[in-house]
Design goal:
Blueprint: H1 14-28, H2 30-37, H3 51-54, E1 55-72, E2 80-84, H4 86-89, E3 113-115, E4 121-124, E5 133-137, E6 146-155, E7 160-169, E8 178-182, E9 191-199, E10 205-214, H5 221-231, E11 238-240, H6 243-254, H7 259-277, E12 281-283, E13 287-298, E14 304-311, E15 316-320
Antiparallel strand pairs: 1-10, 1-12, 1-13, 2-9, 3-9, 4-9, 5-8, 6-7, 11-13, 13-14, 14-15
Helix pairs in contact: 1-2
Length: 322
Amino acid sequence: MIYITDVRIKTPNLDEIFEKWKQRSIRKDKKKMEKQFGTKGAVFSLDAVSAAEYVKDTQKEAAIYFAIKKTVGAVPKGTEEKTILAPKVTRETFYSFKGKSKVNKDIWKGYDKVPTFETIQSVSCKNCSGKGYIESKCKTCKGTGKIEEKLSVIIGEDQKKEVKPFSYPCGVCYGTGTSKEQCRDCGGHKNTYKYQILPVPFKTVVTGIPVLHSSAQTKYEKEIERDLHQMIEDVEGIRFNDFKNLESKAEPSLGYWNKNIKKTISAAGSDYKTYSKDKEAQITTQIYLFPMIQMFCETKKGAKFEIYSLGSANKFMIYSNF
């Protein structure tokens, strides 16, 4: 049982850790054990392999663990709308998911929100009332539709000049009295076009994710993460509800302290804070503090290896590169 306590947690002693490692190693590869620890010509005895002889040094460390539930592929909130001129519609890349299954976010290449084809709508231009042009009085004919001029006419035998009026349709406005200028708002296309930028319909997958920070910084961190996520009841440590409480009680609870442990707690706290603010993540466990013992060993044949223990004297797990 993992528990919260103000009392120092008891770490396993070296003999207990080494014995557990011996038993596992002999089951896994008996020949290797005999080769590395046996004496030529003598019957191999596991009892002769002791921590006192083969453990050269030790280091006390600590590990912080918590788990989160993260929603992968959650739909981003909010929509955007854009309005553009007709010729620019074909220059935009549109997406359609109509009648298609939801998208796997892991293989999706692109933005989480995209212009959606089904949302394209024409909007009648308000500036020109959907005509594409703006009408105004023809400046050439002043809105009359015709050009008024005077014509000199020679009259009769006396050949007197008389000025007669003469008019003809205006060639600028084609006799209508009005001129048409292209609407600046719609470019003469009568409409503008609007569309929405909508979230990609991703598949929503909820996954459990273990988070581990170890001051020993071993190559087994991913393996330890996985084991803790699956077998958290098989190892004993100390539970905390928040990092402030952990920081104040870590040293007296462990019974030892070093700079690496302090840095590890700080880094884990920073991660915890980040996940707390992540809208797609939910922290699903309390914070666990585990004692770690790092043992530096050397076989009779001179092969160096390490053994790590994680947990208390009551329940601990071991890892080794032997």
